[in-house]
Design goal:
InterPro entries: Cit_transptr-like_dom, NhaD-like. Keywords: Antiport, Ion transport, Membrane, Sodium, Sodium transport, Transmembrane, Transmembrane helix, Transport. There is one protein chain. The chain has a domain of 78 residues. It is 73% helix and 0% strand. The longest helix has 34 residues. α5 packs antiparallel against α17, α7 runs parallel beside α9 and α9 packs antiparallel against α11. The protein is an all-alpha fold and 469 residues long. The chain contains 24 helices and no strands.
Length: 469
């Protein structure tokens, strides 16, 4: 009842259309409070064991009920509905895009492509120094295609296998992997959700992201070069692991690359939303899945004959438990918590933007401040607050910036999360995977050198790409 009275009193106070400009109204303050409270729960995810999507989904609903009530009290529900529809359209495009990408990654994992790569690395007998650099470099170059979270988990599995006798090396290697994966994801639209948002928004074209390659490389190399001197000197334990990829693994990888090419070409030359090409790519995988199921019995029979001839007990055991490929299984195993979290963030930020808060923040950051300082601050914020809402807020503000500044904020939001273990999905995931070896304090010890790399990457971008500013 009190809320209804508050909404009713709004009609007298509001002078603008819809609910915009209501940043000083109690409903506006309430909406901010709901968002802040939800984000406190998100930041405490590891302590509370509550998935991050839950509080933001609840907050998104509350905020838009407040916004809709405020708009109705002002006699203008239409503008609120239009704003909500715009947010839902943005989210749906990104949801389908990410869903296809995650499905391909899960399909390659199910076909044991990543297990085969890990086994190959483990069996080569590299030193700790060699593994430190190999896992870091691979993380940097795989994350632009496979996303930083998947890449970090894969490389961490290698560290855990060969470094089990050296917890210190695992902790150091995990810090290096997080920095490398986040840096590699910053120069590709496919490397991180934030870069994907920038590309989908049309602010930066696909090929233009690659001018961030050298700054991103500097971001990785500066802290890695310093950490190099602290790598344990003792030889690692030798490990042997054999993995036989499942049928269709290489074809799945080829189709994923074809899917990326389809999305990029359709977006760049035909101006289609990138999601159209991605969904077409899901069709490629569906067709491959149909073929694999159709020829399943024949292929198993053929492989069994070879396994019996070669006395390959490992392959025989796998064939005994083999099941046909089902494309809907990788879809079901997509990171739904992340996708639903993204929904909550988009709607929360959209609701606060409708109330006028983003306009005020944009004025503060991009009018009252130097734009470079503002974009550097955005990166620092992303170390504490997830970079998804930070970047979505910047894109929603639509500040008038040069191309160089848009690339700068793309870089800083992408790599800023490396400064804390909780600042990126890769860091949070590795704290769980390497529990006890890689902790928040382990990462915090190296924050000064990571910050040095952050500053060096910004200076490199300002210098190399000066003509874009």
């Amino acid at each position: 009842m009190g809320l209804l009275m508050l909404l009713a009193g709004t009609a007298v106070q509001a002078s603008q259309a819809g609910a915009q400009g209501m940043t000083s109204h109690p409903i506006g303050y309430l909406a901010i409070g709901v968002f802040v409270l939800a984000y406190i729960f998100v930041m405490l995810e590891e302590k509370l064991h509550m998935r991050k999507s839950k509080p933001v989904l609840l907050a998104a609903g509350i905020i838009w009920f407040l916004v809709a009530g405020l708009a109705a009290a002002n006699g203008d529900s239409e503008s609120a509905n239009e704003a909500l529809g715009h947010n839902l359209l943005e989210y749906s495009e990104l949801l389908l895009f990410l869903l296809v990408a995650m499905t391909y990654i899960n399909a390659m994992e199910e076909r044991q492509l990543f297990d085969a790569l890990r086994a190959w690395l483990v069996s080569k007998g590299f030193s700790y120094t060699g593994l430190f650099w190999i896992t870091g470099i691979l993380a940097f170059f795989i994350s632009p295609v496979a996303d930083n979270l998947t890449t970090a988990l894969l490389m961490c599995a290698v560290l855990l296998k060969v470094g089990e006798n050296s917890p210190r090396f695992i902790g150091l290697g995990c810090v290096n992997i997080v920095v490398a994966a986040n840096a590699g994801g910053a120069f590709s639209p496919f490397g991180d959700i934030t870069t994907l948002m920038v590309w989908q928004k049309g602010v930066v074209n696909f090929s233009e992201f690659f001018v961030l390659f050298v700054p991103s490389l500097v971001n990785f190399l500066v802290p890695a070069a310093i950490m190099h001197f602290f790598i344990p000197k003792e030889p690692p334990k030798q490990a042997e692991e054999k993995v036989i990829m499942k049928r269709g693994a290489r074809r799945t990888l080829a189709l994923f690359l074809l899917t990326i090419a389809t999305a990029v070409l359709g977006h760049n030359f035909l101006h289609l939303p990138a999601v159209v090409g991605m969904m077409m790519g899901l069709g490629y995988l569906q067709v491959l899945g149909y073929y694999l199921r159709l020829s399943f019995e024949r292929s198993v029979k053929k492989e069994r004959a070879v396994a019996i001839r070669d006395k390959n007990e490992r392959l025989l055991a796998r064939l005994d438990n083999a099941i046909p490929f089902d494309v809907f299984s990788p879809i079901a195993r997509a990171e739904w918590d992340t996708l639903l979290f993204f929904y909550g963030v988009v709607l929360c930020v959209g609701g606060l933007g409708f109330l006028g808060y983003l306009s005020e923040v944009s004025t503060l950051l991009y009018t009252n401040w130097n734009q470079t300082a503002a974009n550097v601050t955005v990166g620092l914020l992303s170390a504490v607050v997830d970079n998804i809402p930070v970047m979505f807020a910047v894109l929603s503000m639509e500040p008038d910036m040069s191309h160089g500044q848009w690339l700068l904020v793309t870089l800083t939001a992408g790599v800023g999360g490396s400064m804390l273990s909780i600042g990126s999905a890769a860091g949070v995931a590795l704290m769980g995977q390497a529990r006890g070896h890689y902790t928040m304090m382990t990462h915090l010890r190296w924050t000064p050198v990571i910050l040095l790399g952050y500053g060096a990457s910004i200076v490199t971008h300002l210098w190399l790409n000066a003509e874009l500013f």
